[in-house]
Amino acid sequence: MTTDIPSISTFSGQGVSGPFDPAQNPSKAAAFWLRRDIVRGVFEPHERLKVEHLVQFYSVGHSPIREAILLMSESGLVVHEHQKGYRVAPVSLDDYDDVLSVYQRLYKLSIEMAIDLADDEWEERVVVQLHRASKAKVVEPDGEAEAREQWQRAYWEFHGALVSGCRSPLLMQLLGDIGFRLERYVNLFAEPSEGRRSADGEVSGMHRAIVEALVARDKARTLALIDDYFATSQPVRNTIKERLRSGAKAKRGRKRAA
C-alpha cells in the first residue's frame, strides 16, 4: 500500500469514521473501515490483504480482521485466491458495465416496489433525508477526503431512504453492495472535471422532483426522472469506460517517500 489517501478510521468528524465503536464491536468497525477504504482507493485493485498488516493498520485484533475480510468477500469487494489468500477485487470494463447495468435495474425495481408498498412513515423519512442532502455540498473525488466522505454519507442516506420503501432487506443489501462497487469505479477512474459540470443546485433540484413524484405515487414520472438523473452522470461514466478501455491504472494518492 503506497498511497497517502487517509483511512476512514482516522477521520475525526462525528460519525464519519463509522457507526460502530471499535472497543465494543471491533469486527463490524473493521469491516466498515475496510469496505470504505477499498471503495475510496486506500487499497488498490488486486492488492493482497495481509491480516498482520491490517491488524496494525486498524489497531484491532486478528479475529476481527479475519471476520471483516470474510464479510467483504461476500460483498464483491474482496476475492479469495486458492492458496494465496485474499485480495482486493480487480477492476475491468466488463465488470463496470455489469455493475452499472444491474445497479440501475435494481434501483428502479426498488422504487417501483416502494411506490406500491410504502406508507406515510416512509414519505416522512424521505423528505427528512432530502432536506439533509440538500444542505450537503458536493465534493469531487479529488477534494478534501473527510469532506468527501461526509457528502457521500448524505448521498447514501438520501438514496437509502428512497429505496427503503421497497421493504425488502435482500434487495437493499444487494443495492448497497453493488452501489459500493460502482462508487469505487468513480473514485478510481472518474475525471473530477466531468463531475463539476453538474452544479449542486441541479442535483438538488432533480432530487426534489423525484421525491415529489414519489409522494404523488406517480410511477411513470418517477421512473422517467430517475432515468434523467442517471443520464446526468453519463459524461463521468464515459471517462471511466475510456480509462478502463485504455488500460489506465487506477488513480492513486501521492506516493510516500521510500
Keywords summarizing the entry:
2 domains; two-stranded antiparallel sheet; mainly alpha; 258 residues; Four Helix Bundle (Hemerythrin (Met), subunit A); WH-like_DNA-bd_sf; 62% helix; 3% strand; single chain
Question: Would you mind describing this structure in some detail?
Answer:
The protein has 258 residues and is mainly alpha-helical. The protein folds into 2 domains: 18-88, Arc Repressor Mutant, subunit A (Orthogonal Bundle); 93-245, GntR ligand-binding domain-like (Four Helix Bundle (Hemerythrin (Met), subunit A)), CATH 1.20.120.530. The chain is 62% helix and 3% strand. The protein contains 11 helices and 2 strands; from the N terminus they run αααββαααααααα. Strands 1-2 form a two-stranded antiparallel ribbon. Helix 4 runs antiparallel to helix 10 and helix 5 (120-134) runs antiparallel to helix 6. It starts with 25 loop residues before the first helix and ends in a 13-residue tail after the last helix. The relative contact order is 0.14. Mean pLDDT is 89; it is low at 254-258.
